[in-house]
Amino acid sequence: MSLRFNANNRQEKGKSISARKASDTNPEQEPPIFCLRFLSKDYCLSKCTKDEKSAFADTIFKLSQLTWSEINSSRRHGLGYEKIARDSLKASVPKHITDDVNFIAFRFCAKAPMIGYRDRAVFHVLWLDRNFTLYNH
């Protein structure tokens, strides 16, 4: 059995879910999607305290309620972000990331940053810098 959602978010039996093509949407008008696939083992959730993990979950929930356009106009120490220079990083950059990729940091617990990169609507979290050791702050 396949399901399809109608305009009122109700499921209809026997119909498949149709997804929009990624190229059909403007990523600036989409909320961020968070990916932890490439999270560094030296700066990951297992290194965080219970309170830091909770703050991380709260932050990504709050950010997921905004569009990228709204995030772009937010303060960097609020729900906005700041750019991080590649040459300021003290950890090695994963090999799959090309030189043209820009790194950005959101604050997830007080001023502790989560650093990663954006690919369309997806934010790939690479490092949770809870001890402020990844780059000079």
Kindly describe this structure:
With 137 residues, the chain is α+β, with helices and mostly antiparallel strands. The protein has helices spanning 50-64, 68-72; strands spanning 3-5, 11-13, 33-35, 81-84, 103-109, 112-119, 122-128. A hairpin with a 2-residue loop joins strand 6 and strand 7. The protein is globular and about 35 Å long.
Highlighted features:
137 residues, alpha+beta, 5-stranded mixed beta sheet, two-stranded antiparallel sheet, 26% strand, globular, disordered N terminus
In N-to-C order, the SSE pattern is EEEHHEEEE
Strand order of the largest sheet: 3-7-6-5-4
Helix percent reads 10-25%
Kindly state the mean pLDDT as a whole number?
Answer: 88
Please state the overall shape, judged from the principal axes of the Cα atoms: globular
**Structural class of the secondary structure composition?**
alpha+beta
User: How many strands?
Assistant: 7
Instruction: For the record, give the distance between the C-alpha atoms at the N and C termini, rounded to a whole number.
Output: 53 Å
Indicate the proportion of strand residues: 25-35%
